From TrEMBL:
<feature type="domain" description="Peptidase M15A C-terminal">
    <location>
        <begin position="6"/>
        <end position="98"/>
    </location>
</feature>
<protein>
    <submittedName>
        <fullName>Putative phage associated protein</fullName>
        <ecNumber>3.4.17.14</ecNumber>
    </submittedName>
</protein>
<keyword id="KW-0378">Hydrolase</keyword>
<dbReference type="InterPro" id="IPR013230">
    <property type="entry name" value="Peptidase_M15A_C"/>
</dbReference>
<keyword id="KW-0645">Protease</keyword>
<keyword id="KW-0121">Carboxypeptidase</keyword>
<dbReference type="Pfam" id="PF08291">
    <property type="entry name" value="Peptidase_M15_3"/>
</dbReference>
<dbReference type="InterPro" id="IPR009045">
    <property type="entry name" value="Zn_M74/Hedgehog-like"/>
</dbReference>
<dbReference type="GO" id="GO:0009046">
    <property type="term" value="F:zinc D-Ala-D-Ala carboxypeptidase activity"/>
</dbReference>
Length: 157
């Protein structure tokens, strides 16, 4: 099932963990509505950077979220976040492009997180939305310090 021109439901609900453990990752109607809104934002990013967007994780059911150790309040849980990269861009470059979009009034987000830029090609960009309660416009970088994940303000790479 195609959600938007370039994003399918399969891509936005795919989970290696779900597959490996036989967990259900099917969204309910509300979650599906959120996934559609998220996909529409990803289309905007795709158009802006003029490159395909690769989604490593979007929706996570309660079971999948538990299995990956995600926060119970994670926007992924509701289908309102995506972990992405863009073909031909590093993660820091993609994050900067999204900030450029924000500054031009082309996108609003709740959280933009540059995830583990020290991992190079293993980094990614998390973008999360809050459709009903106002977007916080938070920009963070996640990094590993002494084996723990810490979040620092702004984009740092
Ligand atoms: Zn994420």
């Amino acid at each position: 099932m195609q959600i938007t021109e370039h994003f399918s439901l399969a891509e936005l609900t795919r989970s290696d963990t779900a597959k490996r453990r036989g967990l259900n990752n099917t969204p309910n109607a509300n979650e599906l509505a959120n996934i559609k809104k998220t996909a529409a934002e990803l289309e905007k990013i795709r158009a802006y950077v003029e490159a395909p967007i690769v989604v490593s994780s979007c929706f996570r059911s309660a079971a999948v979220n538990r299995a990956v150790g995600g926060s119970s309040t994670s926007a992924h849980r509701y289908g309102s976040a995506a972990d992405i990269d863009a073909v031909g861009y590093t993660s820091p470059e993609l994050a900067r492009k999204i900030l450029e979009m924000r500054d031009k009034g082309l996108i609003k987000f709740d959280q933009l997180i540059l995830e583990f830029p020290e991992r190079g090609a293993g980094a990614w960009v998390h973008i999360g939305f809050r459709w009903n309660s106002g977007m916080r416009n938070q920009v963070l970088t996640a990094k590993t310090v002494k084996g723990r994940t810490v979040y620092v303000a702004g984009l740092q790479s």
